[in-house]
Each structure stands twice: as C-alpha cells, then as structure tokens.
Amino acid sequence: MHRKIFKNANIFDGVHEDVFKDFSFAVDVETGKITEIAQEISPASDDEVIDVNHKFVAPGLINAHTHITSEPHVGKEKDKDIVETTVDSIQALHDFLKSGCTYVRQCGSKFGIDIPIKRLIVEGKIKKVPHMMAAGKAFTMTGGHGDYSNGGNVVDSPDEMRKKIREGLKAGADCIKIMASGGVMSPGDFMDEAQLTVEEMKVAVYEAHNKHKIVAAHAEGNPGIRNAIEAGVDSIDHGFYVDDEEIEMMKKQGTYIVPTIIAAASVTEKGKETLPKWEHQKMANAMEDGYRNIKNAFQKGVKIALGTDAGTPYNYFDMTTPKELEMMVERIGMSEFEAYRTSYNAAELMKINDDYGSIEEDKYADFIIIDDNPMKDIKAVQQTDKEVYVSGRKEF
C-alpha cells in the first residue's frame, strides 16, 4: 500500500470538540481513504511524508443547498443558453472547492444540467470540483416558485408528480427538490402561500424514498412548512416561520432544517438599492422572524444542516459556505463546534456520512488545512489561501 502520511497536524476531526495537537494521519493513495490516525506513524520506504507544520486540519465542508446554474452577480442576469450555463456552473464548482467545500447537494438546476455534469465528474472529465449530489430540475406547480424558463418541472396533480419524478430518477437524479411554499425571488407569490399539495408531495417522497433518494422541500412559511413535514420530506430548506408544533413534528420524524441564513442576509443587507422592491421587502419582512425561529428550532433539538442557497443575489460561490458558519455563530447563537457540526449534519442528511463529513479512519480524506484554530474562531475557515484536499489529493 502506497500512502501519504501527514505529520505535525493539529486535527479537528469534526466529531470531537477538542483539537488533536501534533498528530499524524495516513491516506491510502489508491483508495483516497484515511487508514490510520495516531500521534506518530512510522513511514514505509515508499510512503510520501507531508509536514503540515502545526497548521490546523479540518473536514471539508458539505453544503446541502446550492444552485450552480444561478447568477449571484446582480445586474449580470440574463437568459443563458445551455452551453454558457454549463461553463458557468463548472466555474461555480471550482469556486466552491477553493473555498473549502468538498461536497455539494444541488437543489434544482436550469436545464437539469447538474445530472450530466455529475456524470462527467465521476468519469474524471471535470477536475478540481467537489463531489456533487445532483437533483435535476426542481418540481413546482404551474405559476409556482421555480416555474420559469428551463427552470422547473411543472406538475399539477399526484399523477403528474409521479410521472415527472420517475423521469427525473431515470435521468440520473441523486435527490429531489420540491416547492412547498412561495418564495422571495418569484414575483407572483409570498412565503405564506402553500404551493404543491400534501398529496402531491407525498407521491414525490414515496417515489424518491423507494429509490433510496432524499427529498428537500423549499418551505419558507406556513402552511407550506407543515405540509412538507406531513408529506415526509427529509429536509425543510429555509424554514423561516417554523413553529413549535412543527419543531416537535420534525424531531419525531428526524427532519432536518437547512436554513440558508446567508442567502436571506445577502438580500436584505446588500440588495436594498439594487433588487426589485418587492423582492427586498419580502425578505426584510421575514429576516428577524427567521433568525428567531431557526434559533428556537436549534435550541429545541432540530438538527441543522449546512446549506447556503448559493447562486441567489450576492450569495457568491467562492465564500458562501464558510461564511454561513460564521452566521450560525453570530445570528443563531451556536458555538464554533456546533456551527462546524452542521457540515457533518449535512452529510447525515445526504446519507453520505459513512464516507464523508469527518476526519476518521476508513473515510475519504477530504479536508482543508488552515492557519488558525476554527474551534477558537469559526472565521478561521474563511482563509482564502487555504489548502484543499479531496481523497488525499491536493486540489488547491
């Protein structure tokens, strides 16, 4: 076995709050998995030894809500064809990886192009990108959130939902995204409007779970949040108006919240003069309620998974993931460890935690190397020149 041995590493493994100082770990070059973690590891003659020089090693971040086909640069939006959208999407993935994000879940893409992009990543034809869970197009109702050109699968009955979900899974979708409520960026609806019905969403959940796939629900207000929970989705994404009764339902069912705090803050804090008034106002009206309700859900034991809605206005791919961790600390009241733990929760939600999400033996060596201790200051993860490894291979 040819190994890479990383020595003199201060390891935050994502599982324990304590940092293991001046430890070593070995990676099997062929499999890309960690084979040993110890205070010292004696190298064989053919091992490559890398001195981390007492810097901090932490798990690669896992982002459970992204949109690589969207345009975060306000004023540059336009109707791109599939070729330009693909090129920009690959650049978005490069930016994610450089920021320290080593796995993303797509939550709806134009043209459904994340599915063929995922295939090309697996085949090794697209390099220097994170692992990706592809969703294809999101599922919405006629006139609902996400019903725009090349954007969504439009369904208006349980039978239509069943047909479209099966087509998406046949095409290669790794997960499913459904729209349970109105949203911020669609001009014709509001957060308190229910969209897909419980019956329609139950069909989506049944078909996805039957194929061992997970379902994310865009649900910002009620009754959309409640409907999605009743339908059995795996995650409530956004969840700004989640209430106490829904919190108990989510705890009982094991439903996650992916709050995407940075997406909301970016609209309210940067978009007042540049975004349409209706768009900015919808988010501004919900912002403080969102912070309070997500904090309440966290304190009462709902699992929070890391996700950013990257691709929405001013929500850029190259920093959105580490910035969300800072906001978990500052706006939701998490400790540094609790904030970083949302990345592992994302791995649990995505059902990839047997292989990803922490620095442990028999898991893939996806990690970052940074100068400062993220358990002392979560902003340490925002270092722009961090080293990023995927399967033990240095990418940046």
Short description:
The protein is an alpha/beta fold. 33% of the residues lie in helices and 20% in strands.
Could you explain how this protein is built, in words?
The protein is of the alpha/beta class and about 400 residues long. The chain has ten helices and 17 strands. Strands 1, 2, 3, 4, 5, 15, 16 and 17 form an eight-stranded mixed β-sheet that branches. A four-stranded parallel β-sheet has the order 11-12-13-14, with helices on both faces. The protein has a three-stranded parallel β-sheet with strand order 6-7-8. It starts with a strand and ends with a strand. The model has no long low-confidence stretch (mean pLDDT about 95).
- Find the structural class using helix and strand composition: alpha/beta
Give the total of beta strands: 17
Q: Shape from CA axes?
A: globular
Mean pLDDT: 95
How far apart the termini lie comes to 25 Å
Helix fraction?
Answer: 25-40%
User: What's the alpha carbon Rg, rounded to whole Å?
Assistant: 21 Å
* Main sheet characteristics: 8 strands, mixed
Q: What fraction of residues sit in β-strands?
A: 15-25%
SSE arrangement, N to C: EEEEEEHEHEEEHEHEHEHEHHHHEEE
How many helix segments? 10
| Low-confidence parts | none
Secondary-structure blueprint:
Blueprint: E1 3-11, E2 20-28, E3 34-38, E4 48-51, E5 56-59, E6 61-66, H1 82-98, E7 101-106, H2 114-122, E8 131-133, E9 138-140, E10 152-154, H3 158-171, E11 175-179, H4 198-210, E12 214-219, H5 224-231, E13 235-238, H6 244-253, E14 256-258, H7 261-270, H8 277-299, H9 320-332, H10 336-349, E15 367-370, E16 387-390, E17 393-394
Parallel strand pairs: 1-4, 1-5, 6-7, 7-8, 9-10, 11-12, 12-13, 13-14
Antiparallel strand pairs: 1-2, 2-3, 5-15, 15-16, 16-17
Helix pairs in contact: 3-4, 4-5, 5-6, 7-8, 9-10
